[in-house]
Amino acid sequence: SALRFLKEVSDACKTHGIRMSACGEATGSTLSALCFVALGFTTLSMSAGSIGPVKQMIRSFDLQAFRPDFLAALDAPKQDFRNQVLALAADHGIELSDG
Q1: pLDDT tens digit string along 24-81?
Q2: How far apart are CA 39 and CA 5, in angstroms?
Q3: What is the rounded (10 degree) CA torsion for 78, 31, 7, 62?
Q4: Which distant-in-sequence residues (6+ apart) come within 8 Å of 95 by Cβ?
Q5: For residue 49, which of 74, 75, 30 has the smallest C-alpha distance?
Q6: CA distance 46 to 79
Q7: Residue 58: how many CB atoms within 10 A of its CB?
Q8: How far apart are CA 66 and CA 83, in angstroms?
Q9: DSSP label at 68?
Q10: pLDDT at residue 78, rounded to an integer
Q11: Calpha distance 36→6 (Å, rounded)
């Protein structure tokens, strides 16, 4: 999947000390932004209207607690990965405005 590919890129960037950034429509969704952040992206660029909800979402959770669960789900996805991420977000008390 695309997310597994991005994880491979993230791992390579981490190995070489390169920071990752993402921009565009996908970063403006709180659910997608959650995935980007969990994958190790350190900079997200989005339209002005998306900044507030994404910022609120990022401040609503402990990334260090969420990331291992997210990566475990990514390594062994069930039929609907989106629903897995939504369930993980709920388990971690993450506020998604567009789930």
Answers
A1: 888 999 999 999 999 999 999 999 999 999 999 999 999 999 999 999 999 887 778 8
A2: 10
A3: -100
A4: 30, 56, 57, 60
A5: 30
A6: 29
A7: 16
A8: 15
A9: H
A10: 74
A11: 9
CB hemisphere CA count around 37 (13 angstroms): 25
| Amino acid sitting at position 59 | R
* Cα 47 from Cα 49, distance rounded (Å): 6
- Residues 6 or more apart whose Cβ sits within 8 Å of residue 17: none
* Measured distance CA(5)–CA(41) in Å, rounded: 13
What count of other Cβ atoms lies within 10 Å of the Cβ of residue 24? 11
Q: Looking at the DSSP assignment, which residues form a beta bridge with residue 21?
A: 43
Q: What's this model's pTM, rounded to 2 decimal places?
A: 0.90
| Pair of tokens at residue 89 | 């977000």
Question: CA-CA distance, 86 to 63, in Å (whole number)?
Answer: 15
Distance, CA of 81 to CA of 13 (rounded, Å): 24
